Prior knowledge:
Elements: H1 13-21, H2 28-64
Amino acid sequence: xxxxxxxxxxxxxxxxxxxxxxxxxxxxxxxxxxxxxxxxxxxxxxxxxxxxxxxxxxxxxxxxxxxxxxxxxxxxxxxxxxxxxxxxxxxxxxxxx
Length: 97
């Protein structure tokens, strides 16, 4: 039964048939129902996950239209350095001019 820990094993028909054949006859229908239940639960879970992801994607797409558009730079040249106002300019020795 530890081989069924991997969800991909549920699609391995020869392994399922081999495992079912090794079980007592009164347990075989229960095993088949259990495998069908696992498949159903995994399918339903994946459906919910993809539906939720689709809803999140849709909300994000709508919210993009409400974002403020920022203009891009028109050149790749660095802006010239502008001295800050309010500070006195200092000479090379650090003494005010």
